[in-house]
Amino acid sequence: MEKSDKRTVKIMTGNEACAEAAIASGMRFFAGYPITPSSEIAEILSKRLPEVGGVFIQMEDEIASMGAIIGASLSGLKSMTATSGPGFSLMQENIGYASMAEVPVVVVNVMRGGPSTGLPTLPSQADVMQARWGTHGDHPVIAVTPSTVQEIYEWTVKSFNFSEKYRVPVILLLDEIIGHLNEKIVIPDTDEIKIINRPLSTDPPERYIPYKFTEDDIPPIAHYGTGYRFNVTGLSHDETGFPTNDPKKIDALYRRINRKIERYKNEIIFYKTELLDDAEICLVSYGSSARSAKRAMREARASGIKVGLFQIYVLWPFPYEALREISKRIRKFIVPEMNLGQIAHEVECATRTDCIKVNRVDGSPITPQEVLEKIKYVSL
Amino acid sequence: MFPYRRYLRLDKFPHIWCTGCGCGIIMKAMLRAIDRAKIQKDDVAIVSGIGCSSRTPGYLDFNTLHTHHGRAIAFATGVKLAKPKLKVIVVTGDGDATAIGGNHFIHAARRNLDMTVILYNNHIYGMTGGQVSPTTPFGKKATTAPYGSTEPDFDISNLAIAAGASFVARSTCYHATQLDKLIERALSKKGFSLIEVFTQCPTYYGRPNRLGNAVDMLRYYKENSIPIETAKKLSDEEKRGKITIGVLHDIERPEFCEEYQKLLERVKKI
């Protein structure tokens, strides 16, 4: 980002940064249901959205919240909800609808321990596979994993941009640690924030085809109440948006909505590498666990161990190719994550190696010391 | 004849409903009501869930949204709040609105969000093959109640009244001319309005319960319906087994969109 005098430096929590970034992204409709540790996002937005003329509504449950944001998005407002584990489970039904009907929405999941009610006030990263495969059927989705309050701001903006550009639901995965962490943040001036809005149809209403097969696989959208009278359904549909049982049309639909992510994955996938050039050991991590991994890496380097970091910011689509490429020169991968090895499995799949897992599922963060011990063990 | 074609997506016909089904009668009444209320097609959003009733929007030339089972009202809440100028109509069924979608139904009524819910109550799950629903009367048979239902049924209109709806009316497919007038009144009412319509499902409710064909079922509605004005004079015992029709409830309550607008004005002044 460019330097500007209009930047403001603040101390805020991750949940607060998420809410502010959503407003800055142009989000004007929030529907949600209280759940720890995400509730602050709803609380802040219940105050902030009316200030900017937006709509805040507390719904009767998470199923309704997800339904309402889809309805609002189809009517033209950038929309979002925020929840945690059990609420995320309830949202899966309508996340599938957003995938199927290609409705831009952002779903924030501030992860806590699970399954079930689990650990309401303690962190976890155990919803990462649910973020990918939580709703039924082959479906497109994007999920992102920032690790600092500053990154939460940036990736909230990017989540809206992805969602609008590709017409997919985007899952913004935070966890209790960074959601509640107070940290320094530099809020950029509004001119500095790059905003992408959904592709709007320029066809006249009588020629509008809601799910037209276009060169770029992303059909331009029209909104309810603007003179375009079209149909949206969760059933398999043809280009016109009406249900179809024609195998060719069904096949074309499912392949296109999934291809949207596959063909654009190189502009979606994002990761950062650090000290990997001469590394023999590679840490692969994301979210708050990546912070511990980074610290452990620095301490290991200080004692002469050649270790680097591969930090994932876009978890889905997963950076399989990049990890495969790196695996040619890495002796061992270590994957710290607050679950029982969900992403380690993907790393193994990408690198065709057995990796070392560093897992915690007791509601406590993974410490740099724990990662360091594994690094030392591997380097022996 | 009323120009139904003006409001239909003719290329979507023939419809999927069974012979003798009441869905078409209600759909036509709805179109007459919209026409009389002089609401432009572009300004109407029809939202539905899953079930026989919920196939209605697909045939209609409005802004249409066919959602998940039970979720129509949740989606409609977003549509309405994002575009308050839209006249939002939810088309739903007894199972859709009061079983899987019961929570959304009562809360939309409580909020008094401006929308009209037209609920096709056929006492059965038609689309999935005749399973027992929350409105299947005690003792009646269904494919998942082969020995007869052992559960009491919901009085949907009373449920909506208790939950806070502004306007509640009930009618039947026999009373089609009354039905469009009731829908028209509901459309002009600010707030949450419900039109509950008893409708025949000869295929999955009539047949297993030996209620005859569609005409027999309509005759039943004719002979067993009593206007609310009459019903008020009867004892509970005298009303047993009767269908009370007409405007059951019509009150003024603060409407959600208007209250939200006031909130925005208030915040602007801070």
TrEMBL record, chain A:
Annotated ranges, domain Pyruvate flavodoxin/ferredoxin oxidoreductase pyrimidine binding: 20-255
InterPro entries noted in UniProt: 2-oxoacid_oxidoreductase, PFOR_II, Pyrv_Fd/Flavodoxin_OxRdtase_N, THDP-binding, Transketo_C/PFOR_II
Top-rank taxon, per record: Bacteria
Gene Ontology MF terms: oxidoreductase activity
Domain spans labelled Pyruvate:ferredoxin oxidoreductase core: 279-371
UniProt keywords, alphabetically: Oxidoreductase
Keyword Oxidoreductase: yes
Protein name as it appears in the record: 2-oxoacid:acceptor oxidoreductase subunit alpha
Source organism of the structure: candidate division WOR-3 bacterium
UniProtKB/TrEMBL annotation, chain B:
GO biological process terms on file: cellular respiration
Organism domain of life: Bacteria
Record-linked Pfam families: TPP_enzyme_C
UniProt xrefs under PROSITE patterns: PROKAR_LIPOPROTEIN
Domain (Thiamine pyrophosphate enzyme TPP-binding): residue spans on this chain: 50-197
Keywords from the UniProt entry: Oxidoreductase
Record-level Gene Ontology MF annotations: oxidoreductase activity, acting on the aldehyde or oxo group of donors, iron-sulfur protein as acceptor; thiamine pyrophosphate binding
Keyword Oxidoreductase in annotation: yes
Protein name per its UniProtKB record: 2-oxoacid:ferredoxin oxidoreductase subunit beta
